Amino acid sequence: MKKLILFLLVVGILSSCSRYKDLVYFNQANLPDTTYQPEYIDFTISKGDLIYFTVHSINKEINSIFNDATNSNMNYAYSKANLFIRGYTVDNTGDVNLPFIGKVAITGLTVDSAEAKIQSLISEYFNDVTIKVKFVSFNLTILGEVNSPGFYSIYDRNFNILEALGMAKDISVYGDRKQIKVIHQNVDGITTEVIDLTSDDVFSGKKFFLQPNDIIYVPPRKNKNFRLNAPNISIVLSSITTLILVLNFIIK
User: Residue 77: which CATH number?
Assistant: First the structure.
């Protein structure tokens, strides 16, 4: 009888415990002694992407041809909505229709390559002009066992998985850090890969940096339901233990 009671108590305690190594990032990695060089592959512009395009010149007339009048207002807020309204969408043929120079094919080019191409075209008509191209369509969707899931707009082309999870206020205690799924969407279709944040594999290869429109999903750990129901289980076990003690007392 005593062994049964002890067993029930142990089960109740273990039901509310998490293994330390399952909650710690990079617990298999020897970070201080290793230099990592994750591979970064610059993304390319696709159909439906949105770019923001500005021209800079000492000639105010040239600026007025290409730029929205609000660009000269230093207090103008470049919100996501404003960039969407004043940006240029890549159409289904892979072109972007820009002022004065017309349609320019930029699908398949990196942002830097697209900027160089547009710069070359404008320089055929105007001297001493500098153009800037900004990619506006870098969005991430973060789902699952994070503390703040949602849809996020990114303004850094070199954005990585750790920054994304930090933006989502980290993985919850119920999240499986060994089975994080990253879903890539590009012109070739949809691909997926699994990232284990308890090892240093994330720092090698192509997994570290994210691409536009990636979806990050953090699945729950297998014992989530058990842990969520741990208080109820503890109450049941306590009731059973009390009942056994009472019956044992009556029998004696």
Answer: 3.30.1950.10
Say how many domains are in the chain: 2
For 119, the domain range is: 50-135
Quick one: 124 and 219 in the same domain?
no
* Residue listed under structure tokens 């969005």: 139
The pLDDT tens digits of the residues spanning 58-73 come to 888 887 877 764 454 4
Same domain, yes or no: 249 and 160:
yes
What token pair was written down for 223?
A: 């014992």
Residue owning tokens 């020897």: 30
Alpha-carbon distance values, 172 to 19, 71, 176, 177, 241 (Å): 14, 42, 9, 10, 32
Instruction: Tally helices (H) and strands (E) across the chain.
Output: 7, 10
Query: Integer distance in angstroms from the first to the last C-alpha of the chain?
Result: 12
Q: Write out the DSSP string of 104-172.
A: EE-TT--HHHHHHHHHHHHHTT-SS-EEEEEE---EEEEEESBSS-EEEE---SS-BHHHHHHHTT-B-
Strands 180-186 and 215-218: antiparallel
Q: What are the tens digits of pLDDT across the range 10-68?
A: 444 444 455 656 677 776 655 566 777 888 888 999 988 999 888 888 888 887 877 76
CA angle 168, 171, 175 (to 5 degrees): 140
Model confidence pTM above 0.85 = no
Distance CA 204, CA 38 (A): 5
H or E segment and range at residue 246:
helix 230-251
Answer yes or no: do 114 and 177 share one domain. Answer: no
Residue 142 shares a structural domain with residue 207: yes
